[in-house]
Fold:
Amino acid sequence: MHQNYHAAFWSDPCYTSSSEEEIVENRYSSHIKQKMFCRRLWLKPGTGFWTASQQGAHNLASFHQASLLPQRKLRGLLFPFSELEPHLACSVDRGHFQLFQPSVEDITKAEKLFSPSSSHKIDYHTSAVRMEHAPSQNQPEVCFIGRSNVGKSSLIRALFSLAPDVEIRVSKTPGHTKKMNFFKVGKAFTMVDMPGYGYRAPKDFVEMVEHYLGTRKNLVRTFLLVDGSVGLQEADMIALEMCEEFSRPYVIVVTKIDKCRQGVLLTNLLQLQDAITQTVRCFPQPFLVSSLHFSGIYLLRCFIAHVTGSIQLGDTCQS
Ligand SMILES: Nc1nc2c(ncn2[C@@H]2O[C@H](COP(=O)(O)OP(=O)(O)O)[C@@H](O)[C@H]2O)c(=O)[nH]1
Ligand SMILES: [Mg+2]
Structure:
């Protein structure tokens, strides 16, 4: 199978230049290079986009709005795993699914960071195709990677829903984010929406994402998104391997949890948990989100605020 990838890769006219071969050869060992062949084929070129700014805030954008809901519903929005837990067999260890359990005070503190003010601007900053064009590294950064259409841009839009004027490009069809899009959250941290994995590669992917993961000094956490309604795909496994290779801390975010039945989601989640136990750098707890229903968004905001060092958590929270 690798042989086929290999042949297809080298028949791509974009990659037949010997100088490019040399650059790649110098930069990576042949083992890693072989994996890159596979990766490139999973990346899909885009053909356009539409812009999703000025849409107004979601009616559950703020935790205050959510806190007016009945307790059970609120708990499900805050900790989506709580809705699945009763359906798990007693023998399944729930511990790893509930490691990060901030208090309501922590969640409220974190939310302030995602609310713009005159002294705390939240905005699209810039886009870059190459690392040379990436902005300076003077604040902590988190990035979002995953297959095309997995819900990266939608998730960023949900996280930023308290700042609805932030311009976020959400693709209508897969693979449209071809650049790294940088967003500034005041002076606290930067968030980056990365181009997605797909069927075929935009030729700059290796230079962009792998170079980014390999060199970005201020990167404090990578969020690898996996579609909860379809479960782990081969491209996700390749992305997992890539994250392991770069040996930097990363976290799995399970998207679109509203889109399938709970039984399907649980099956996919347990399969994912098996894969996570075989990793070294992945945070054991996957974060479940629905950008549509806002489940898990408050928790993720709090986790991002925590890993970027923007808030101090209360004593009761483990992470
Ligand atoms: N049902 C559901 N659909 C979602 C969710 N998040 C994203 N989508 C849809 O999935 C598609 C791809 O989303 P997008 O954010 O552009 O994915 P990206 O290519 O990873 O940036 C769009 O049609 C979104 O409306 C979600 O939480 N639930
Ligand atoms: Mg996108």
About this structure: The first strand starts at residue 50 and ends at 51. Residues 262-277 form the longest helix (16 residues). Residues 152-153, 171, 177 surround magnesium ion (ligand 2) (CB under 6 Å).
